Structures are given as structure tokens and as C-alpha cells.
Amino acid sequence: MRRILTATDLSARSDRAFERALALAKETGAELHVLYVIDEDLPSQIFADLSEAARGDIAKLLSAKGEGDRAVVHVEAGQPWKVIVQKAQDLEADLIVVGTHKNRGIAELFAGTTLERMARYSDTPVLLVRDPVTGPYNTAIVGVDFSPMARRTAEVAARVAPVADLTLVHAYHIPFKGLTMRTNAEGDIPKKERDAIERPLFAELTRFIETLDLAKDRTRQKLREGGTTSILGQEVRRSRADLLALGVHARSPLVLGLLGSTAIDAMSSPPCDVLLVTAIRQDAAAETSELQPTV
């Protein structure tokens, strides 16, 4: 990674995102940019005072960590999500790092808020930091569906977590299972029938992994029947993963799952840090024009 952008509001909840961004910059040698956004409707003198105070507070944070000269600080006016997306584009940033309140879930964060809008308009992957930083990421779960978006998600996850073990998880659904197959009381089907379903999926997952630009010796694969959100949540808890990576595009089952009732139940709070990897849009310039102020 060449450039990392982290947005802070200088609250306690953003401290962890700041620390993770700083750690990633040190691990990867990336340039770190710190962004603070002020309400654009404030009088100019109040803006100037807040800007000076914010720059001072950020400088103190960097100095306290012995990194006084590492980051470039930006203070700008506007709506936070618009300013973050535009700044990431202007800097050609490789990653946006933001924090989340410990009591707010990923599904809640997605619905019509800063994170949802960043995912919609930004070409830059977004890292949502929940946990304290104790070192580099160790274990990452990546949701995949064999699409180009899934490919980009896995490869970005490998760059964000270069020393982590990656498990690529594909969740599949058996249509009308109860009507077309023999099931037991728990809803399971005979091993012979499950093997017949999973064999081609496993082969496709293996071929998919072989095409990825990542360390194969640290990459595992897993097939699981069930809803995407619940399966990924189970895998995060089972493996004690510290990073969950998801591809984000308008029609992705991963996003639809996150916005549905299953996500509200299964992910009432983020299970760990979450990496949201967006598609690179061909019409990014047209979409970005929506970010510009109107006159």
C-alpha cells in the first residue's frame, strides 16, 4: 500500500482506528494521512479555531506515539462521508480506516449512514476498526462467491493482513431442500448427497484460489451451507478471526445479507474488524460528481 487515509473525530471511539491506521502504515511503509472534518455551516472564525485545535490535538496524538513526522494532517469542511470519499480519491489512497462505536452493529452502520455512503460512492476499500490494536492481523475470514469482486476482496485482504492466515469461505444455499431431498430432524442431508453438491463447488473454489495473487501456504478454503451472514459470523467466532473481509457492490448477496434481518440478529455488533472492499466503477467520475458542492 502507498497511502492510507484515516478519518478521526478525536473521540475515544476513533482512537482504535487511528492506532490501526498508524500500525498499518508502519507495517507496509505507506504514507499516512489523517483527516478531520468540520461542519461546513459554522462561521469562518469558529472553523479556523476548531481547525487549529484539531491540528494541535492530532499532533499531540502522533507525538505521544513517537510518530510526530509520519502523518500528513488534513482539516476540511463538509459532510464527513463526502469529504472522506473525495479526499481518498484526491490522494489516490489505497485504504480508508474508520472507527465504530462499540454498541453499534455493522447492519446499523450500513443503513443510510456514513459507512453505507462510503461503500456506495468510494472506490477505496474501507476498514472498520472495532478492536484494540495488539499487533498485525493474525486470522482473516474472507467471504467469496467466485466473482471478480470476490477476487479483489481476497487480494485487498491479503495486503491489509500480509502475515495473517486467510480462510476463504463460500456459503451456498440448496433450493427447496426440504422438498427435493431426504433430511433428518436437524435438516441435514445424507453425506452422499452433500458430497455430490459440494464436489463441483470445492473444485471451483480451488480454481478460484489458484488464480489469486496471495500466499497460498497461508490460504485455506471452506464450504458451508447456510445464509452468508450467519455462516461468516460463525466462522469468525470459531476461528477467533480478527478481520472479516466482504466485497461490496449493489447486487452482492453479501451486502443484501448485511442489510437484511439476519444481519441484525447475527451481527448486532461487528464480530471483529471489518474490511469492506468496493468495486472499481467504470463510471466513478460521473458518480463522484455527486460529491461536489452545488452552487
In short:
With 295 residues, the chain is α/β, with parallel strands linked by helices.
Overview of the molecule:
With 295 residues, the chain is an alpha/beta fold. The protein has two domains: 1-99, HUPs (Rossmann fold), CATH 3.40.50.620; 134-295, Rossmann fold, CATH 3.40.50. The protein is built from twelve helices and ten strands. It has helices at 15-28, 44-64, 80-91, 106-110, 114-121, 148-160, 177-180, 191-210, 228-239, 253-259, 261-266, 284-288, and strands at residues 3-7, 31-38, 71-77, 95-99, 126-129, 139-143, 165-172, 219-225, 243-248, 273-278. Strands 3-2-1-4-5-10-9-6-7-8 form a ten-stranded mixed β-sheet, sandwiched between helices. Strand 2 (31-38), helix 2 and strand 3 form a beta-alpha-beta unit. Helix 3 runs parallel beside helix 5. The radius of gyration is 21 Å and the shape is elongated.
How many helix segments? 12
* N-to-C order of helices and strands: EHEHEHEHHEEHEHHEHEHHEH
Largest sheet: 10 strands, mixed
Query: Can you give the mean pLDDT?
Result: 81
Gyration radius from CA atoms, angstroms: 21 Å
The amount of beta strand, in percent, is 15-25%
In CATH, what is the class of the largest domain? Alpha Beta
Order of strands in the sheet with most strands: 3-2-1-4-5-10-9-6-7-8
Architecture of the largest domain, according to CATH?
A: 3-Layer(aba) Sandwich
Beginning-to-end CA distance, first to last residue: 36 Å
Query: pLDDT under 50 segments (min length 5)?
Result: 103-112, 255-268, 282-295
- Count of extended strands: 10
- The CATH homologous superfamily of the largest domain is termed HUPs
Shape: elongated
Q: Helical percent range?
A: 40-55%
> What name does CATH use for the topology of the largest domain?
Rossmann fold
- Give the total of domains: 2
